TrEMBL record:
GO terms for cellular component: cytosol; nucleus. Residues 295-774 form the Glycosyl hydrolase family domain. One of its GO terms (biological process) is glycoprotein catabolic process. Residues 1-27 form the signal peptide. GO terms for molecular function: carbohydrate binding; peptide-N4-(N-acetyl-beta-glucosaminyl)asparagine amidase activity. This is Alpha-1,2-mannosidase.
Length: 796
């Protein structure tokens, strides 16, 4: 069986491979080590327990079809390791998301036979048919997922872009007793179905149908279609079923939201039953489409005409190897676990958003269409900056698709899934993604339209700012902050998060200012640069903060402000892990900060660090406050706003402390266990965080700035997939025990490099950055002239 081959190979590798030295074939032809297969270092099960919500199943990079076993429990991505029963196998998922479960439409389920060969004795509906899965049976590899069920079914699956292929092997049943029955259920994981239809073709056994469902974190509804074909056994009979009753004389079952029997929890569908298969296994191919049943069938026919399971797995593996091949590391001395943390993180960054080009029924366009930007509030900080480095062609297609969404819906999304508008969590952070791509010269983008899109975010309040744009723009322009208890008759949205929205809008405006400056819109530059200073209007200089009655001795925090300028109050530690951690979610009872404390948001002025440091009492006070944030338990690294704070010591001239802090979180919070990520992965946010951290260059999103820390490897190289140029970061005196993690001196292409940051041209043009390491902090990168840019100057 496939799974045995896989584990045998993995075991061989871990036993005999003490170190791996891989170089991209293009960078150094002939030197690559054949024993290195990057896929042995990708473990899709990392982050599948304890709320990580990582998608563990089979998918191509950014593939639309994502096949996995759906389990009962916290099944946001279908399968979760901390569950016991499988309810079906479905073909569409998202990865790492919070909120409610996503998609999981039209699950199929195999029965080896029905008791007494009576279809009405089979268990049909979702809650009754669930079967325990065998512990330790899940095998997950890029492009492959396998799991064994206690009913004797071994389930394996793989995918192409728009179809899934399942192989069900019936282990514990004698061939004479076998009469496999495969059902399809018109249900989805969130149980959101509004209407649905299923048909069966009784001559071929083909199962077809469609349904209307709700998105998991947004508004509206979407239609999806499926087409199921079988191979490997002779068709016996077909029919329909609802709840726990089936009928072989009917071919169609339908439910409509306006009719009876419409509960979205109702399980019903069609089925095909077979004579005993020759080799105890049956292949099930499922095509999916947002356009029509016809297109679902043609997607499957085109992408896998031959039901070639091994061939489909191997095509998926090649696609994954090719994607990951742009990164190469010298892993000499680095533990196999840490290498797995790294490569698995890169893998997870390449799962979403999904490429639905040609599958968008909402508008006609020649532009690409990507979906499941879930959500940009999470992805702007590390996912898109990493994609710009390791998959520029895809980042370009995503940018074009974002701009096309603006063209056809009127706004850039902050979150979007299943063809629907998703909820906005803070600012209009697509502005950051757009500016980041502009500064890094992502090719193929219509920048004039992109600029119109970001200006619209800044100027025109939408009717429903829960799902796009910004709320409170009247106050933003007139008062210079988002007030608590705002008066806003111009649009509808959730009036919480006045502090976090203020600092995010300020940074969004800065990103627009950067574009305006370079595009020659000088008046806009002045306007948005000025507005980017608005964060300071919610800084209350005399606000103190205590923890359990003991003063933290830091003064000055962001606080809510009423429209009349009077201060409100929110305890600066409120919504940190130390106080009411879960009280700042996205609902009308949320408070003035979003998923974090005022303590945390007080550090968010990424464009104006000079002024922020001055405001907080100078570099020494800033450093001790930032240290306190990390040491006190006030910070949760499982939410994305934490990322930048790990590296902000660079701004107070202490790059060594950023390096030390990065090792404080990796691997203690990021490891190879199934619970090995902090928080939800959020479409690869945690994965990209760990990759960028281990590469040693932290991108400040929305700026042409990478903060330099030593890589976790002796050497890391990134090959630009468009130009072929290679950028290499090399540690001199590399210490795999990570005691020497402090940069003593640096050279770029042989010349001294004193700045503690570097710009994107390093990656665009290629080159060599050499970092000489030592066991203690040096004065490298600590001087005023070494610090990253700031809108207002640093003060000594
Ligand atoms: C899958 O889609 C990607 C684009 O997202 C494309 O580059 C790739 O060639 C497709 N794979 C196959 C096998 O069609
Ligand atoms: C399904 O439900 C949606 C939403 O209620 C409705 O707009 C659509 O027309 C329905 N489709 C069919 C085919 O009944
Ligand atoms: C679903 O299929 C039924 C039957 O073929 C059809 O009447 C209906 O319009 C389809 N719904 C959608 C949303 O395509
Ligand atoms: C099965 O379907 C046929 C055809 O629609 C119908 O005549 C028959 O009554 C159904 N049987 C049951 C038990 O519902
Ligand atoms: C704040 O300062 C006081 C007086 O120096 C000290 O006793 C106290 O421990 C400090 N609080 C913290 C949290 O460090
Ligand atoms: C400002 O508004 C707040 C909230 O409505 C109110 O409590 C406060 O008294 C007002 N302050 C002034 C100076 O009017
Ligand atoms: C804070 O949490 C406590 C329970 O831990 C709860 O009673 C209280 O209502 C919460 N406060 C707010 C403002 O959410
Ligand atoms: C692995 O990471 C998880 C999630 O951050 C953490 O809770 C756990 O303690 C870590 N385990 C180890 C052995 O470091």
């Amino acid at each position: 069986m496939w799974s045995q081959t896989v584990s045998f190979r993995a075991k061989l590798l871990s036993t005999f491979t003490t170190f791996i030295y891989a170089l991209a074939a293009l960078a150094a032809p002939g030197i690559s080590d054949d024993s290195f297969d990057v896929l042995n270092y990708v473990d899709p099960l990392i982050g599948t327990a304890n709320g990580g919500h990582v998608f563990a199943g089979a998918t191509l990079p950014f593939g639309m079809a994502k096949a996995v076993a759906d389990t009962r429990g916290e099944n946001q991505a279908g399968f979760a390791y901390d569950t016991t029963v499988v309810t079906g196998f479905s073909h569409m998922h998202d990865s790492g998301t919070g909120g409610s479960p996503s998609m999981g439409n039209f699950p199929i389920f195999p029965h080896p036979n029905c008791p007494d060969d009576d279809i009405n004795k089979c268990k049909w509906q979702q809650s009754d048919r669930a079967v325990p899965w065998k512990k330790k049976s899940p095998v997950a590899r890029p492009g492959y997922f396998g799991i064994s069920l206690q009913n004797g079914v071994d389930a394996e699956m793989t995918t192409t872009n728009r179809s899934a292929l399942y192989r069900f092997t019936f282990e514990d049943t004698s061939p004479e007793a076998l009469s496999p029955l495969i059902l399809v259920d018109l249900i989805d994981l969130p149980q959101s179905r509004l209407n649905g239809t299923a048909d069966v073709d009784r001559s071929t056994g083909r199962l077809m149908g469609n349904g209307t469902f709700n998105p998991s974190f947004g508004i509206g509804s979407y239609d999806l279609h499926f087409c199921v074909d079988f191979k490997g056994a002779k068709l016996r009979d077909t029919g329909t079923w609802a709840r726990n009753r089936a009928n072989t004389s009917r071919d169609t079952v339908s439910f409509y939201a306006d009719g009876t029997n419409t509960a979205s929890t109702l399980s019903a569908g069609t089925f095909a039953r077979f004579h005993s298969p020759k080799d105890k296994s049956i292949l099930v191919r499922v095509g999916v489409s947002f356009i029509s049943v016809k297109q679902a069938c043609s997607n499957a026919d085109r992408e896998q005409p031959n039901f070639d399971f091994a061939g489909t797995v191997s095509a998926a593996e090649s696609a994954w190897r090719k994607k990951l091949d742009v990164i190469s590391v010298n892993a000499d001395g680095v533990s196999s676990d840490l290498q797995k943390v790294f490569w698995s993180g890169a893998y997870r960054t390449l799962i979403s958003p999904q490429d639905y080009t040609g599958e968008n029924p909402l508008w006609k366009s020649d532009e690409p269409y990507y979906d499941s930007y879930y959500c940009i509030w999470d992805s702007f900080r590390s996912i898109h900056p990493l994609l710009t480095l390791i998959d520029l062609p895809s980042q370009s297609l995503m940018m074009r698709s974002l701009i096309d969404i603006y063209r056809h819906t009127g706004y850039l999304p902050d979150c979007r899934m299943s063809l629907c508008k998703g909820f906005t969590q803070g600012g209009s952070n697509a502005d950051v993604v757009v500016a980041d791509a502009y500064l890094k010269k992502v090719p193929g983008v219509d920048w004039d339209t992109a600029y119109k899109a970001v200006v619209k975010d800044a100027e025109v309040e939408p009717a429903n700012w829960n799902v796009e744009g910004r709320g409170g723009l009247h106050s933003w322009k007139n008062l210079g902050y988002i007030p608590t208890d705002d008066y806003d008759p111009y649009g509808i949205g959730t009036h919480t998060r006045s502090i976090s929205r203020t600092v995010e809008y300020a940074y969004n405006d800065f990103c627009i200012a950067e574009m305006a400056q370079r595009m020659g819109h000088h008046d806009d530059y002045k306007k948005y640069a000025a507005r980017s200073g608005n964060w300071a209007h919610v800084f209350k200089a005399d606000q103190t903060s205590s923890i359990r009655g003991i003063s933290t001795n830091f003064t000055g925090f962001l606080q809510p402000r009423y429209p009349n300028g009077t201060w409100g109050y929110q305890d600066p530690i409120f919504c940190s892990p130390l106080l009411n951690f879960t009280s700042c979610y996205l609902n009308p009872d949320g408070h003035e900060t979003y998923e974090g404390s005022s303590w945390l948001y007080t550090f968010y002025a990424p464009h104006d660090m000079g002024f922020l440091i001055k405001t907080l009492g100078g570099p020494k006070a800033f450093t001790s406050r930032l240290t306190y944030l990390h040491d006190s338990g006030l910070l949760y690294v499982g939410d994305e706003q934490a990322f930048l704070t790990i590296y902000q010591f660079h701004y107070s001239g202490r790059p060594a402390l950023s390096a030390r802090r990065s090792h404080f979180y990796i691997p203690s919070q990021f490891n190879t266990t199934v619970a090995g990520i902090a928080g939800n992965d959020d479409s690869g946010a945690m994965g990209s965080f760990v990759v960028l951290s281990m590469m040693g260059l932290w991108p400040v999103p929305g700026q042409d700035v990478y903060l330099i820390t030593p890589p976790y490897f002796k050497e890391v190289s990134i090959r630009n997939s468009v130009t072929g140029k290679v950028a290499t970061i090399r540690n001199i005196n590399f210490d795999p025990r990570y005691r020497s993690i402090y940069i003593q001196s640096a050279k770029r292409n042989g010349n001294p490099w004193k700045q503690n940051w570097i710009t994107h041209d390093f990656f665009a043009e290629g080159g060599l950055l050499e970092l000489e390491l030592g066991a203690s902090e040096s004065d490298w990168g600590t001087h005023l002239e070494d610090l990253p840019p700031s809108l207002n100057h640093y003060h000594t």
